UniProtKB/TrEMBL annotation:
Its main location: secreted. This is von Willebrand factor A domain-containing protein 2. It is found in: Secreted. InterPro entries: ECM_Assembly_Org, EGF, EGF-like_Ca-bd_dom, VWF_A, vWFA_dom_sf. One of its GO terms (cellular component) is basement membrane. It comes from the Eukaryota. It comes from Herpetotheres cachinnans.
Length: 747
């Protein structure tokens, strides 16, 4: 990372003799590239050239050939090992004679970097001295197991700063930079300084070693006699020798020393003065792991924490940590603290009332003070208590706005020992928005509590709980800013196959699918209206679009849907929906997107293509969900497009496709709409579009939608609007205004 930036020439002298060998020569090339990283290579600053030497020197490239770091490093890779004897002296004489090839003629400092094992065949003392007398700075870099004495002869003074070891490339690059900083380079980076420290140089030397004494025979002064004796036996051995030395290195402060990453983030240095933070989930709003989530939606929020023996002390402490992490992530310094915490086991307590704390610090202290109690798990009782006492409006909590949506987040990891369904319904009927958080085995009970899978958050292991922070934030804010099509006006009709081909058991699964699908919508006059039709050979309206105005009423009505059990005719069902469901008389709203979802096993679809086409021509989307084997061509003619056909292999898999189906319906709810499709005018009235409005042209009828008959021979009854009145659409209803002041009639 550190770069020596100044105007000077660098010439590398690479030893490629047989004593080095091809493998070590490749390491020399790699090390040369590493040293280039410490040099600011540029035509006006550092220039680099390379000479390879063994028996004779060979110029690989002069200093003026490659003028960028990338070019130099690419060229170094292509150097080929030549082999030969180690004639270091001859290479130095070549430089004395030729100078630095392609250099700037001593107008800038010259640096020679010799990479060798120091085992020259001839003397290097004189040529090395002559090179240094020309004011060339010489670095001697040992490769493999070098002969350090010769490298010290080659290197400039002080030798401790000019002799390096290629075995540790990063350390040697630092050493080169450190030495050059004191001579040719610009000053070190701010806060960095050159320090010396003890180090060691290693080499392999061949030594003579006594192996032992062996019986040998020696001559004797006596004629014809020999004498037995013990003779020493020696062998030659290569020994690793360590030479103590001193190394000079540039030491810089670590940018992470100041611990810049907050909220448990991990600091990773990038160079001398840069770093980046790995942030936990919920953080990363800036480079220092500031909270990146924000509870920008306005809600009154109460956490209901399970403190029973079922969650254990460890689980309770985990919930406290999760709660603190969540609030730190979503609550800014200036955020209104409309937050409270309750805990339950056999009994319920509210140690932190909603709105009690005005700042995050005091809220965190109160959470720290919460104590584990143990005891039974009476979740139903706790929900009932919270519905009655969790959001009390008292003078001391006057800062809590009464108009805010009220949200209860249940944190539990143990199954309730009392019934929860009735208590949860009581909570929802009190207009409290319930969100359940628990481990995966709690999913079924949490869905029973919330009444909606989308308001249920499950985690797979303790750490995964903390990964759910962003999801919890989205769920809390969805009450204030509904997700998906909850905020989109939509008229939606389900056509459910109740024929014998489906069977009672599978019909009940289709009915359950309709029920859970309705939980994705906000059902009322202004947003989503839902109708339900069941069909066999004929069609039967269970409830019309304008029959029910709340989710609970729709869910209750779905539970009463009858099974018919005769033959199927999807065509008769679609005709019935066209003429008797998606009409203004039955609550269909002009200017609102309309969707029909057909749930079938694929039987009785032969007569459905023409009615489906008629619905589409009138701006009504037909979405076909088929379970089991069926003729795809027939189904495509009914759906009109593969985008509106979902083929599922079994009834058991139906639940897994719900999100996909709802997503596509929601996309349709956001598309542009034609106010005259389907025709809002009754009794053959003609719908005529205007800018943001429409009018009905009536024949023998009068009223905004041609709903009143004109009696012949009598003066017309006072209609609410003249027959040419305009109707402007609004999701909250129809607004009427007249653009024709006089009353006119057309017959």
């Amino acid at each position: 990372v550190m770069q020596c930036s100044a105007s000077f020439d660098v010439l590398f002298l690479l030893d490629s003799s047989y004593s080095i060998g091809k493998g070590s020569f490749e390491r020399s090339k790699h090390f040369t590239s590493k040293l280039c990283d410490a040099l600011d290579i540029h035509p006006d600053r550092v220039r680099v050239g390379v000479i390879q030497f063994s028996s004779i020197p060979h110029l690989e490239f002069p200093l003026d050939s490659y003028l960028t770091k990338q070019e130099v490093k690419e060229r170094i890779k292509r150097i080929v090992f030549r082999g030969g004897s180690t004639e270091t002296g001859r290479a130095l004489k070549y430089i004395l004679h030729k100078g630095f090839p392609g250099g700037r003629n001593s107008s800038v400092p010259e640096v020679l970097i010799i990479i060798s094992d120091g085992k020259s065949q001839g003397s290097t003392v004189v040529p090395a001295m002559q090179v240094k007398e020309r004011h060339i700075t010489v670095f001697a870099v040992g490769i493999k197991f070098p002969r350090w004495e010769e490298l010290h002869v080659l290197a400039s003074e002080p030798t401790e700063q000019h002799v390096l070891f290629a075995g540790d490339a990063d350390d040697a690059a630092n050493g080169l930079y450190s030495t050059l900083t004191g001579s040719v380079c610009s000053a070190t980076a701010p806060g960095c300084k050159v320090e010396s420290h003890p180090c060691e140089r290693r080499t392999l030397e061949t030594v003579k070693e006594l192996a032992g004494n062996y019986v040998c025979w020696k001559g004797s002064k006596q004629p014809n006699a020999v004498q037995a004796s013990l003779c020493p036996f020696y062998r030659w051995k290569r020994v690793l020798i360590k030479h103590p030395s001193r190394c000079f290195r540039t030491v810089c402060p670590d940018p992470c020393d100041s611990q810049p990453c907050q909220n448990g983030g991990t600091c990773v240095p990038e160079g001398l003065d840069r770093y980046h933070c790995f942030c936990p989930v919920g953080y990363g709003g800036d480079i220092h792991c500031a909270p990146k989530l924000s509870l920008e939606c306005g809600v009154a929020l109460l956490f209901l924490m399970d403190s029973s023996a079922g969650v254990t002390l460890e689980g309770f402490l985990r919930y406290k940590a999760f709660l603190k992490r969540f609030l730190q992530a979503v609550m800014g310094q200036d955020s209104p603290m409309n937050v409270g915490v309750a805990q339950y086991d056999n009994d319920v307590r509210i140690p932190i009332e909603v709105g009690q704390h005005k700042d995050a610090f005091s809220l965190m202290k109160s959470i720290d003070a919460l104590n584990f109690s143990g005891g039974g798990t009476l979740t139903g009782k706790a929900l009932q208590y919270i519905a009655q006492h969790g959001f009390r409006s008292t003078p001391v909590f006057a800062d809590v706005q009464d108009g805010l949506p009220r949200v209860v987040v249940l944190l539990t990891d143990s199954r309730s020992q009392d019934p929860v369904a009735e208590a949860a319904k009581y909570v929802r009927d009190k207009d409290l928005f319930l969100i359940g958080v628990g481990s995966s085995f709690m999913r079924a009970e949490l869905i029973k509590v919330t009444g909606n899978p989308k308001q249920t958050i499950v985690y797979s292991d303790p750490q995964d709980l903390f990964n759910r922070i962003p999801e919890l934030q989205r769920r809390i804010c969805s009450v204030d800013n509904p997700e998906g099509c909850q905020a989109q006006p939509l008229d939606l009709a389900f056509a459910v196959d109740a024929s014998s081909g489906v069977g009672l058991e599978n019909f009940l699964q289709l009915r359950g699918f309709v029920r859970s699908s309705c939980l994705h919508f906000s059902i009322n006059r202004d947003v989503t209206q839902i109708a339900l039709v069941v069909y066999g050979s004929g069609a039967h309206t269970v409830f019309a679009l304008d029959t029910h105005t709340s989710n609970s009423a729709v869910l209750q009505a779905i539970d009463q849907v009858p099974f018919l059990g005769d033959l199927a005719s999807a065509g008769s069902a679609l005709l019935h929906i066209y003429g008797d469901v998606m009409t203004v008389q039955k609550g269909a709203r002009p200017g609102v997107n309309k969707v029909v979802v057909v749930l079938t096993n694929g039987g009785g679809m032969e007569d459905a293509a023409a009615p489906a086409q008629q619905l589409r021509r009138n701006g009504i989307l037909v979405f076909v969900v088929v379970i089991g084997d069926a003729q795809r061509d027939t189904l495509l003619r009914v759906a009109g497009s593969p985008n509106y056909l979902v083929h599922i292999s079994s009834y058991e898999e139906l639940q897994y496709y719900q999100d996909l189906i709802m997503e596509r319906i929601c996309e349709e709810a956001k598309s542009p709409v034609n106010l005259c499709k389907p025709n809002p005018c009754m009794n053959q009235g003609v719908c005529i579009l205007g800018p943001g409005s429409y009018r009905c042209e009536c024949h023998g009828w009068e009223g905004p939608h041609c709903e009143s008959r004109v009696l012949r021979g009598d003066s017309p009854r006072s209609p609410s609007l003249p027959p040419h009145s305009h109707v402007r659409w609004s999701p909250r209803g129809l607004q009427h205004f007249s653009r024709v002041p006089q009353h006119t009639k057309r017959h």
